[in-house]
Amino acid sequence: AAHAADDADAADAADAAAYAAHAADDDAAAYGADAGDVDTLVEFAWHELDRLSRSPDAAAYLMDVDAPPLPFPERQKRFLARLREVPTFDYWADFFDDRFHGRPWDRAIMEKSARLPEEIASQSPRAINRYLAELARGGKEEKIKRVRAIFIGNGEAGKTSLIRALNGETVTEGGTDMTPGVEISEWPVAETGLTAHFWDFGGQVIAHATHQFFLRARCVYVLVLNARSADTNPNQQAEYWLEFVRAFGSDAPVLLVGNKCDLTPVQVDTRRLQESHPNIQGFYPLSCTQYRGSHAREFGIFKDAFVAQLARAGDAARLYFSRAEFALIEELRTRSGRAAFLEKAEFEGLCQAHGIEDEEKRKDLLGLLDQLGEVIWFPDLYRLQGFHEYLLNPRWLTHGVYRLLYSDLLKDQQGVLKRGNVRELLANKHIRDEQGHVLDYPESKLVFLIRAMEEFRLCYPASFRQGLPEPGARDGEDTWIVPDLLPSDQPADLRFDRAGALRFDFVFTSFLPRHVLSMFMVEHYKDIQDHRAWQHGVSLESRHWENTRALVRADYQSRVLALAVAGDHVAEYFPVLYESILNILARMPRLGYTKRLRLDEAARIGEGRAFPGEEPTADFGDLLAMKAAGQREVVCKFGRYDLQKLLHLMPRGMAEAPKDRPTLEPAPGPAFEKKATDASRWDKGMLALSGLGGLAAIVGLIIGGDGRMGWFEKFLLSDELPPSVDSLGVALMVGGSAMILAAVLAWLRRRGL
């Protein structure tokens, strides 16, 4: 199992399984010396399941001091000893030892451990174990008293004016220019000790594509609506931006603000919106220009509600630091005002000065600070490009990126960005951020900015296939393409034979994010055919499969992303592009869409009906279900089609109905126990091991909450840990599944398989 792991993170779980398998293979009697032992173990497992079902909650079950002792204490000791041999798993050995002996556990620590924030749960198993061990020792008590408030809405809605009003500044009608990109400022939250970071996003369309890098679930959103907009009414604005929040910010609270209500009443169907977006916390009509005058009362109501939501977000933060880590973070913030970058060696020196000497802990902390936006670094850049500095001030990056994206020069060049352009726009320019800090962009740091844009999928290097030099070429200037600034018109010489092509549509329920196509272009830029890329589409020619092309286009009005593949190797090229789109969409799990297959006329049977402006399509899942049911024809409003011909271009694996994935079942009941008495002692030992693993996993599912079964299925079929799950549930599920895996491995080895 360890050899099959690709990296140290996966090796942690593999090590645990390998130790368990080794123990089982060396001494099967450790899990059941005879049939009587097996019966005892099975009976104990059923007894514990019954006791768990009668407990008011999982915590009460784990902390029950009257719990019966586990059978076979010597084997219990052996299990703990084996567990301690796995790096960082001594925490779990201590945990299980406490549970075995019924020792009480501090409920507050249990809650902290069982409800890990996503920043911790997404780290490696060893990093998670180190964090849990620090929690158990009481070494992590400090929380960052900062919350993020994100102001979104169409251009000229009044987001900047609202922030000025919150700061007690004078607001005049038409007194602010449209925000170019993003502005970041700080605001003390009254009577809470919290500091709010205000992120004021521009309303321009290009900004919508870049907002995704800054939107988070644990924020407070303020959606400002413009009642005087000539393009959309407030309800349409609200629906668009609420879908934006759903895609990127999950269930984060949203406050709707109807600005300029002194000039035009803001009519919003709040009840209907709350039915589909229950995270709406209220609607607040006000006037920023009159916040001290005729609309002071309305503004005060909004401000009180806003402060309450910020305080709630601060209380809900579950990320804890040691005093040494907290002191280091504060020092880094102080230094960020003086210099945007910090040498790697200097960072390590600061860690040592604050008592953070362990290299693994420093690495964990650095990754955590990167997720929090306190320190920005890209491991691949440091490994491949030789960078040796960390970015302390995120404003350096945001201001630099937006300065490029909003430049007239880049717009005039239709998205073609050369290194000389970057120097011209930024080098040796002194930009002052919202806190008064001067941001310098020396030429030596510009490569970091460009590589960061590549990491964020904002641009791609112009390839030799497009007649432009590769990055790093000595005979020419480095050149990049920014997809969001490409020409808006489709190339006149675009040629793609749709006849016989496999055509597939992603139809979005209410919102097609503009960055989906841009990120897709960046990921497949080497296949772009002769400059044929524009803001709404791209033409590709596979480098790996001859005579195979693809056309991908986005229709933002109808919310359709269309993928068409034609040529000699459709079955090979289509899955690559299809999976790429799915991976991009997977980052927005709440984004609703359906998958539809275009119905090829060559598969039509007899005559059909034509619907003006509507091409024949069918739900892809329905077609697979029909095939699985043995149907040969598809009958729909467009006519009759040969199902086999419709799916003949589809790759074999995709043309099959999805098989039922395995689900975790509880250990067999008493009736099964009696049937097992004739089995060998070895098989009974493996049965007991599997049963205990199932028990641990079931407990993990219960602790993890409702809806974890679907996650667990994905976990069993994946090489990676999911981005966010409750830690205690994870531990038990991982441990349980490792025991089940160990039993299977040992059984196969026993039989020479």
TrEMBL record:
Keywords: ATP-binding, GTP-binding, Kinase, Membrane, Nucleotide-binding, Repeat, Transferase, Transmembrane, Transmembrane helix. The chain crosses the membrane at residues 685-705, 725-748. The keyword ATP-binding applies. PROSITE patterns: ROC (PS51424). It comes from the Bacteria. It comes from Candidatus Kentrum eta. This is non-specific serine/threonine protein kinase. The lineage of its organism: Bacteria, Pseudomonadati, Pseudomonadota, Gammaproteobacteria, Candidatus Kentrum. It catalyses: L-threonyl-[protein] + ATP = O-phospho-L-threonyl-[protein] + ADP + H(+); L-seryl-[protein] + ATP = O-phospho-L-seryl-[protein] + ADP + H(+).
